[in-house]
Design a protein that fits this description.
This protein is of the alpha+beta class and 360 residues long. The strands form 3 sheets. It has a 6-stranded antiparallel sheet, sandwiched between helices. The termini are far apart.
């Protein structure tokens, strides 16, 4: 009897795995939740070899992992140094793209609109005098890093991060000044919590992490117990690749629309002009930065950066990237530990993008 019960439990567990993690019929995932694999084409192997050789010669980037997908299948994967397939990695600002996706799901569910005013969500955190610029700031302005601030408070020492953000001067009219603002993404996370009653992590778990068979990750929180939003998420390289594949498929996964195709389109397209984090729109010229030598100036969507060749990316400090390449039906996910983010991107654009295009 005990054996029969054990076998029944095992059968139920297997059925649950099939239900929650897709099928093995060649869609997005195998029964164990992993992405399907194919043998590495010679063109891809040569491209990766060229990337690693040039990187070794210049000592510019320390890659920790690299995964390349085409038509939803993994064509190449490798880990370097102490990195490993089952080891989560700090995403840094790649976290922002997950927070924006939570915002998109809230929009899809009718819980908020991108035109909603920031001040309406935080009546108890507002400064004594609310400036016209602060009053005008919307969810859209936060999504596009155009809230109007040109500096950020030392919020990690603040009792309440939302109060610290709202007290910082809104110098410019929202929508007219790009400033890479991590605390602004925290405000998006806080807005999701306001309208759902859940942390972003908890809200995304049944809507994103479970359907993609991503083990529930760690995500840093503020003193108020709100996910940091702009950073603090830790996931594995294959999880990154799944997120990229979801966007490549316009929000569709195993026959279910997890996030609307309209949101994916808006999030990934050019919304506003952009400059690198730490720069200002009025000082990039003196730094000699142009769209030709700095891909951080190719434009910004909803917590996504535009790339060459009609591609776009989730982007994190120290070289964490999810690059979505619609024209090649491809995704590149990589982690690294580097100060030279542009060098890492340039290697991928120079070698891997053309190799993927050549397979068509």
């Amino acid at each position: 009897m005990k054996l029969a019960n054990t076998l029944t439990i095992m059968a139920l567990a297997a059925a649950m795995t099939l239900t929650s993690c897709g099928s093995n019929k060649g869609t997005q995932q195998l029964i164990d939740g992993s992405l399907p694999r194919e043998a590495t084409p010679a063109a891809i192997q040569e491209a990766v070899d060229a990337v690693l050789a040039e990187d070794a010669a210049n000592d510019a980037v320390k890659f920790e992992s690299l995964m390349i997908l085409k038509h939803g299948k993994v064509l190449f994967e490798d880990w370097y140094g102490t990195a490993a397939p089952d080891k989560p990695h700090a995403m840094h600002s790649v976290s922002k793209s997950f927070t924006a996706t939570a915002v998109g799901m809230c929009v899809d569910e009718g819980l908020l609109k991108v035109t909603d005013k920031l001040v309406d969500f935080f009546p108890d955190n507002l400064p004594e005098e609310v400036s016209d610029n602060l009053a005008a700031c919307t969810v859209y302005d936060l999504l596009t890093m155009n809230c109007g601030q040109e500096s950020s408070p030392n919020y990690r020492n603040a009792t309440d991060w939302a109060t610290a953000f709202l007290a910082e001067p809104f110098v410019h009219e929202p929508g007219t000044w790009y400033y890479y603002n991590t605390l602004g993404t925290y405000m998006l996370s806080a807005i999701v919590t306001k309208v759902t009653g859940q942390k972003v992590l908890d809200y995304l778990t049944p809507r994103l992490f479970e359907p993609l068979c991503i083990e529930i990750p760690f995500w840093e929180e503020s003193p108020q117990g709100i996910n940091a939003g702009g950073y603090g998420l830790e996931i594995k390289t294959e999880d990154m690749a799944k997120f990229g594949q979801l966007f490549l498929q316009k929000g569709m996964w195993d026959g279910k629309q997890l996030v609307s195709s309209e949101w994916v389109e808006e999030a990934s397209k050019y919304q506003v002009p952009s400059v690198p984090a730490g720069s200002r729109p009025d000082n990039v010229a003196e730094k000699g930065l142009t769209p030709e030598n700095c891909t951080f100036m190719l434009g910004y969507g909803y917590q996504m950066w535009r790339c060459p060749d009609n591609a776009y990316r989730a982007d994190g400090a120290r070289g964490q990237y999810i690059m979505i390449i619609p024209d090649s039906d491809a995704v590149v996910a990589c982690t690294a530990d580097t100060d030279n983010l542009q060098a890492e991107q340039d290697l991928i654009y120079k070698y891997i993008f053309p190799a993927l295009a050549s397979l068509d």
